[in-house]
Structure to design on (208 residues):
């Protein structure tokens, strides 16, 4: 995540997506919610009340200077050669794969503030079958998926060749570290159940 995490750290009341089977339910603390789901083919109504309990709310404070080091790392990545619009897509895709609600909201919001469209953000999960993304973005998203699922993919040569074709060596280095960084943020925010904001900014008006 970006340096914005400093501001969000105070908002760690803490919640995320509970992934159980194919069910995705938003959990909030300290609110009790009763999500309603349509009846399944088995005729059961899947409803249950969930009480969100934070696991830790001061985790950034507890790691002291290490947290500032992470923020500095993110700040330096933003100074690199990669366009910020591409980094937003990369961070959003990794967060979708990992199921980190906190990071999904942050990076969708940051992307919208940076001029991204709602349609492209919705299509990030289906970028393989969308014409909305440039060759650079497609290569970056493929590399993001390969590294986020590295235990399964082992960063295959064909994806490496694709990303190396459209990015120079410096860009590939920055991109790879950016992907590693968002995966770290995803894991810590999921582990501690970091609560996401309930709003997104309005999409900027684009000239016709």
């Amino acid at each position: 995540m970006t340096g914005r995490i400093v501001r969000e750290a105070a908002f760690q009341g803490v919640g995320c997506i509970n992934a159980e089977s194919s069910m995705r339910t938003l959990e909030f603390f300290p609110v009790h919610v009763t999500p309603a789901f349509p009846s399944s083919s088995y005729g059961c109504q899947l409803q249950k009340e969930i009480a969100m309990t934070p696991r830790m709310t001061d985790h950034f404070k507890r790691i002291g200077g290490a947290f500032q080091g992470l923020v500095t790392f993110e700040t330096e990545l933003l100074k690199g050669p990669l366009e910020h619009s591409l980094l937003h897509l990369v961070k959003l895709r990794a967060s979708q794969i990992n199921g980190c609600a906190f990071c999904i909201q942050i990076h969708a919001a940051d992307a919208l503030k940076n001029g991204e469209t709602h349609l492209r953000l919705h299509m990030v999960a289906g970028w393989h079958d969308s014409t909305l993304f440039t060759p650079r973005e497609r290569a970056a998203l493929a590399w993001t998926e390969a590294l986020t699922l590295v235990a399964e993919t082992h960063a295959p040569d064909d994806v490496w060749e694709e990303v190396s074709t459209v990015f120079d060596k410096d860009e590939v280095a920055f991109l790879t570290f950016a992907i590693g960084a968002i995966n770290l943020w995803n894991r810590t925010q999921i582990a501690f159940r970091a609560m996401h904001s309930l709003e997104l900014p309005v999409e900027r008006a684009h000239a016709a």
